[in-house]
Amino acid sequence: MSRPEPDPASGPAPGGAAARSPEVAADVPLADYTTLGLGGPAARFRVAADTEELIAAVAETEAAGDALLVLGGGSNLVVSDQGFPGTVVHAESRSVEFRNADEGRVRIRAGAGVPWDPLVARTVAEGLSGIEFLSGIPGRVGSTPIQNVGAYGQEVSQTIVEVLVYDRRTGERRTMGNADCGFAYRDSVFKGDDRYVVCEVVFELERSQVSRPIRYAEVARALGTEAGSRVPLDQARETVLELRRGKGMVLDPDDPDTRSAGSFFTNPVLDPPEYAEFARRAADLLGPGVEPPAHFDADGRAKLSAAWLIDHAGFTRGYGSPARISTKHTLALTNPGDATTEDLLALAREVRAGVAKAFGVTLVNEPVMVGVAL
Ligand SMILES: Cc1cc2nc3c(=O)[nH]c(=O)nc-3n(C[C@H](O)[C@H](O)[C@H](O)COP(=O)(O)OP(=O)(O)OC[C@H]3O[C@@H](n4cnc5c(N)ncnc54)[C@H](O)[C@@H]3O)c2cc1C
To answer: Catalytic annotation on 93?
Structure first.
């Protein structure tokens, strides 16, 4: 068992003032626990140091008839300026177990509160392949199944074997296999439904010094190789970190562009008639020579680039004040310093309306909204 380094992304570490107390703390500012640095106070705030405490805190909150918010690293949350009127349970369970499995595979069972990127770093250092392209993503292990965290052609659904959950409907713990999780692009049965509290996640990785095949042309280009090839794990990680830093997608207290919730909008997926209408509007607006980037699946559904849509609807990097589009990446909405959640939402609504007007496509937010709606 080991304890990875605390994630600097995720608010005060377990030794911090609120975290040290096993008691229920009152009026804890959630801005200190979100990567946007936004959010009013939690009426009540409890820290769960292991799976048992997590389940107990959730069950007690329910028994008291209080509203519940499970908090990980706060990197995918937009919290109301008014805060949260119920109990926030901060998942801080940090247990990690590595076990050999069949055919050179290794199973990792990690508690919900384990910081994600230090775990990725450890797997890379130990020669385990499967999550290397997910380097640099903030947050905790327990949140990774919620929106099937993904980047550069890798998603956690490719390596999650099972998820131990507490089922709030039945009051029982339950092990859900990969197929039970309903994984899809930035989605799962857990997203938008607070029935399940993720307590532990089991990943299965391959013992290998080289990465999984590269799926992204951008990564291949940066490594001077071709999509489909495999590279040493540490090179894969360093390259992804470098690419992400260039986009302000690795948390850095000195870089205001990283005070975000990552990508604010998901890439829209259109069925063939919707895509035909979109392509017609794009050609009318931008001329027939402009080809909007799209990735087609086997059923002919097109995944568009939300960043391209925002750019071509006229919203450039750095747009907006006091909340602003990142100067490094069109898809990240940021709080460079003195914005409020309402400011951020006003910017998001303006961008969404501009894209809908230009292209007839309605963007959907990726982060979870707490006490607010877009
Ligand atoms: C700079 C930056 C870059 C990012 N890049 C990416 C990226 O490349 N790919 C990507 O997919 N995401 C990305 N994100 C988004 C975010 O990091 C991930 O979604 C991450 O998994 C969220 O983890 P968290 O612990 O911070 O979750 P939180 O923000 O704390 O919570 C998110 C949601 O999960 C729920 N939740 C948290 N823990 C549990 C639990 N144990 N059980 C049940 N529900 C729970 C919360 O209630 C909330 O609804 C990025 C964010 C930032 C700020």
So the answer is: no
